[in-house]
């Protein structure tokens, strides 16, 4: 076949093709071979793994792109990483990391010789070995394969604030059907060509998913072209199944797009012009399972969905399959690629970049290596004055906003705040005193706080916020995600995958810890009374606590100062998922800053000032057993704390002799046994706080069952009675919301009366009063449309 | 201002504009007014609600579309419903339902007079009244506002198999930024113009979200036009802020698109040509908060994000605001719109369609009215023979596939199966003996089972599958969604919203029950050993059980026959979310069909054939107390059942005197108290099954804490020891997976030894043997890459 015209000389073409053959050979070897890694002898069934697990279909395309990225990296000294949407293509990325030496550097037992090759092949998708997907174990990856949809958001997250970085992001045509991916093309409206790096999306159309074609491969190319232009890109199409022609065409296109990206950046930076250019992208259309078996058992395999996993699989039962595998492996001519020792031949090793320019060794893909502490102002400077507990009001998140503003100012290139159009709604608007929203679409007169170089990322997509932030953290930076509590469930599955990444990477020595993923969940269930039922769901906490205890932290600061203390702690932490739940509405301040710090540090504690179960001389937790309470009023969350204190006030007035202890929980994981969670408290301490046998009325922010789940092993568990959100809500008043869920002060008093038999004759009257008070509150609300003033303006009288 | 050219005569224009003014007036009235609904007296502060909660910004646009839809419905006798993406626009939809009389029909107290108007206004977003969003309470709605992203998928779901239905779907430009919405434009590749109805998407660009502009409103119109063409639509642009011009232009475009849809359908149906046409869609660009206050307190409100909620809000404190509100209300000239009694004037009432042609009264928007039972074949005909328990193998989902195939055949227009490209992978391929995948993109030689009129909906987007199915169910049809267990979390938040819809509509008398949403979660955590950690997550069960007990059902059938029985039950049920978890790999059959039916009907029961805690004469549950077991081995899920039986086998051999009771749970909700869930069993029955004081070793499919949460109130709870998935996984063998999570047979035996002190001298030796067996199993696996044959081929010996 005559050479196609293109930028590659015959020798370059021959060598890049050989490099691709080597990567493909190593990929097939990983999927199949236990032994005989260089085919130095005839292939026998015992050389082949008994269970064949892996995905071939996407791999040759990934290898092609890798080889051509290597070429332009070397030619242009690019600083590039590779984000692999088709995460099934694990063997290809392992193969490339091995070919360029990184793999042996981080896993010294996988040597660059025949013995190492044998181990490389054997470990893949093998018990005790490595996963079959692009996984944390693979150097160069910031992106686990498996759940699809996040390649582009991760890529953009990596590119933000990395002006010299080029992120090559391969989007599989299966992944392209997902919602998150479909939205994430619009990330180009949030990227500043002056300040940020570049993302080169390569839409790889191999045409098939597991069992059927893909949508984007089956619409006319003109329609696909319009779609990409509509998304704001300049598409370059490369289509083919003849390797040489594709090499030439792809090389030409790669040269063009790399030059175009350089031109865009030069122009933007020379003139300080951040306006959004039509960034180039590539549509690469090549056969699925390219270069693999064409026809197996009479059915077309290459170029169809049948090559998705293992294209020829009956190796141990069918001699023809064994022969087909051997033909396939030999088709790459491994004897030309690897020398007698099993090393890649010298003329090919030079095709990879060297040192940190290797995509598998680029430190951006091991973000912890680049991570630096945030410069944090002293959060105590933002404290609200609290002369007496529960007498003044703050909007806790607004107080936090001032702190976050100064964190932003002090860290102008390594900190971003994400939020789905809710930053101001969530009272974090102080951020806009120091920065703007990132926005690289049209800006018109009258727009506020929009700029291409803004550092608050707002888009009405929790998926994009989450994906950008993950990409940003995974490449060694810091961030903060504020979200309406109910809608954070939109990213449940993304959180799962990130939690799995964190869990796995804790045990990979060469992976350095990254900054924690910090959530502020606000506009929460108890103050979504105006948006109603659809906005009320506190279940994200339940979701995250199923993940590994070592990476999950949940905080429910009850007021502004505790929120400041918790937020500071979270911003300093590493490799966790921190969930902070805090309200944005005016709410009582309970603790002055010093007390707030102490309380947050303990995570859980008796609020002596609200308790009367001991004398002033013994106001310490350890002395509590001396003055055993009649009832423990526990609370976690700002609204439960308010209702608990109000209930305690009522109890005090009606039952002055009743010994009431108030326990407040900031760090929810304290409730678990210390054997289950690093923050868990000992049974002795739990018993000291909650007693061994007194009733505990526990007012909790979320679904009440979680408290039972966390405490079921505790001594006094059978006496713990939990109130929380029981999935009752609508558009109504704040107090009606707590009444609908039996979390209101009057009901908490009823709960105490029901569980403390010693209250005497007055109890029946008070019980009746409480029922009447609930009826009165509801009647007033339904008549006047507001809560009774004495309820909504209630303050703690002590 | 001279009239723009257009299809409306001056009189038509005047009247449609008056109708729009009426809807806008009623919308503003709902947001603001407690009294004085017709402005018959000067507006005073006491006429205005004390809390102003609602969203004005999107409402005038929704009202405009509604009025113009009414016009084309009447002109063409269309059968149409209205799916409202901008769900905040509740007041507009209520206003229109009221104007056309439906509202008073379903809520007779809201009369069509001044008194009714007063009640209509007062109830909106008011305690004891109706939510502020497009909610289940609103006739004509199939779509709760709040969480955004699902308007188009719901619309397509409604259109499937409804050839005469036109679904007008308004997509807000905020919603358009979400992932699910971005992907759902591609739904046109899954719609058959011959068989299905039509969706008319109207992208309503009012330019702003809560606090900032929207992406699609700030890209050049040419780019947006390309985007829509790339998605496969023919866009028509209507832009303006002058009402008369917009009326004329919009009317002209509506005439064009309705004619174009009719032409497409005529042509497709006349020639039986299902090929995908470029369906028309409309881009409507009008100001946010159009016709509302232009400037308030010196800031531009109309046409900006400041009109998102309540544009002038200090009514009670600021006389100027009160005056502005009064001017605003008067600007609609209510005295021309409503007669002396407060009724819409006669010349306007005729602008609405009548009877079921009213979008608010269309029965498709109250799907339960149209719902008919499925024609179900007898599921017993698909039973696998089970002569002896645990001696033969089936792939449970493959057996189910045969049943589903015949359900599909028997219900050719009212049943669909959804799956993200996993129908064959999940062993439901028998469906393709009777239908194909729905596919209206290119089909090429070699493609299997693709057709425009296919009834299996496969796309690599759980969001689309879920949204289509919701739309299909909400309009009165049936469906079944099979999904990889781990990735169903992708739709956690959609499930929340659907659960809320079901919960709320149970208490709305005129809403008829709809078919249940049935999930089959397969390729589950214990048999995702080949895809690894990213594919392993059983937490969806935890997610759904937070929703209201009255609508949640969770089933863990242990084998093929129980799966058939459960599936039949779920397909007959109404208004539930049914979650079925079942494996697809070859697994033991335990129960013949009669026993399977009995077991599933009970939901939980002792497996006498596997137990030895009583003599053959007393093989009934109630007799169990006669022969108290030494240990109860409980199991829920196919793999836990296998491991439990294997452990019982080991126990029998080593401790023949040990009395072991095996309890299997199919219906997980049985474990809850009967006070908590309708399927919950009484404490007496629970104690009879689990004893009051014997150790219970509970092998569970998912996260073990859930079992504690469900049983914490039970007598014997402190003796329940649960094994389940503890978030340990990777690419390894099936048995290694259960070992990593301590759910394996050997560990269950160890658990028994640890908890039954009476086992005597042999216990220490057996304990040691079990540890050795685990080491041997792991060593073998790491050496050979497979499980030891005696483990993977294990069968129950009794």
TrEMBL record, chains A, B:
EC nos: 4.1.2.-
Cofactor list: thiamine diphosphate
Ranges where the Xylulose 5-phosphate/Fructose 6-phosphate phosphoketolase N-terminal domain occurs: 8-369
Residues in Xylulose 5-phosphate/Fructose 6-phosphate phosphoketolase C-terminal domain copies: 584-796
Keyword set, alphabetical order: Lyase, Thiamine pyrophosphate
GO molecular function, one term: aldehyde-lyase activity
Alphabetized InterPro entries for the sequence: Phosphoketolase (IPR023962), THDP-binding (IPR029061), Transketo_C/PFOR_II (IPR009014), Xul5P/Fru6P_PKetolase (IPR005593), Xul5P/Fru6P_PKetolase_C (IPR018969), Xul5P/Fru6P_PKetolase_CS (IPR019790), Xul5P/Fru6P_PKetolase_N (IPR018970), Xul5P/Fru6P_PKetolase_ThDP_BS (IPR019789)
Keyword Glycoprotein: no
Enzyme class, spelled out: lyase
Example GO BP: carbohydrate metabolic process
Pfam family, one: XFP_C
Classification via HAMAP family: Phosphoketolase
Family per similarity comment: Belongs to the XFP family.
The protein, known as: Probable phosphoketolase
Natural source organism: Candidatus Protofrankia datiscae
